[in-house]
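Exercise 7. Given the encoded structure of a 274-residue chain, write a plausible sequence.
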């Protein structure tokens, strides 16, 4: 059992329509070189996950993600400072994030937001950094990729106070149907990770049922949050296919319809080539 827990899940059958993994961390999955990235995305493509957005949570990861997005045409990047790392977020860090965010293959400012689960950064520091990232996304005309953990009300309040960018993506959406409805009414996009496949995630199930096409994405947040029935095992972008199939079953829709919705929404949100 111990060895099995360390093994990657099997690569599922290829989806009938290719999709985008809207949020992953290729570096945390173990990729270091261009060859590593290509091997990982090759596995994803075998499952019908043709493109990925690799996401940073600190400056070192942001530099790597920005560089990695130039190694493979199937890879794009998002850069920001994760809310748990905002205890020290001054002018030097802001300048570097902005420089990287201006990259041609950087398609989003993220992940940024609020995390009240961990006690690594004071709430006021997180909120100040979140406001700065919101402004950056608006100035650059790029999507805002939000991390929201146990902070729904403050996240929504700050978006209202600052004025949300044109495109807002709630990465690994963790709210219930009530929060989902408020986000949908604002035009925000909800991105569902492997957590939506967990049997006890009833609130997420209701949220995924109500969100209309054009306002939901699928992601892995790899190497974390591996979909059921492989929960606890390592995750990679190809596992997006498991989540897409689960969403189709949950919504009572055909797999190709959900996959098409996931792909076209990602293309619009991140301004990817069709």
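Solution.
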């Amino acid at each position: 059992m111990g060895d099995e827990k360390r093994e990657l899940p099997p690569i599922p059958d290829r989806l009938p329509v290719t999709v985008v993994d809207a949020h992953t961390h290729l570096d945390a999955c173990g990729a270091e070189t261009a060859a590593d990235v290509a091997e990982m995305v090759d596995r994803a493509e075998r499952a019908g996950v043709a493109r990925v957005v690799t996401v940073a949570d600190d400056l070192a990861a942001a530099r790597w993600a920005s560089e990695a997005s130039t190694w493979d045409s199937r890879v794009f990047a998002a850069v920001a400072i994760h809310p748990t790392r905002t205890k020290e977020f001054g002018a030097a860090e802001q300048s570097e994030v902005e420089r990287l965010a201006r990259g041609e293959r950087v398609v989003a400012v993220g992940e940024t937001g609020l995390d009240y689960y961990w006690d690594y950064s004071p709430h006021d520091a997180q909120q100040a950094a979140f406001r700065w990232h919101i402004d950056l996304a608006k100035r650059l005309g790029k999507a805002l990729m939000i991390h929201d953990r146990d902070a729904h009300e403050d996240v929504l309040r700050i978006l209202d106070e600052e004025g949300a960018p044109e495109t807002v993506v709630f990465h690994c959406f963790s709210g219930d149907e009530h929060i989902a409805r408020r986000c949908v009414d604002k035009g925000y996009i909800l991105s569902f990770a492997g957590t939506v496949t967990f049997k006890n995630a009833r609130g997420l199930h209701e949220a995924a049922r109500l969100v209309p096409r054009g306002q939901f994405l699928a992601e892995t947040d790899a190497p974390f949050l591996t979909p059921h029935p492989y929960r606890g095992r390592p995750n990679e972008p190809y596992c997006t296919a498991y989540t897409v199939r689960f969403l189709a079953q949950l919504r009572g829709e055909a797999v190709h319809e959900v996959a098409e919705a996931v792909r076209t929404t990602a293309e619009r949100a991140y301004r990817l080539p069709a």
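Remark. The first helix runs from residue 2 to 6. Students should compare their own answers with the one above.
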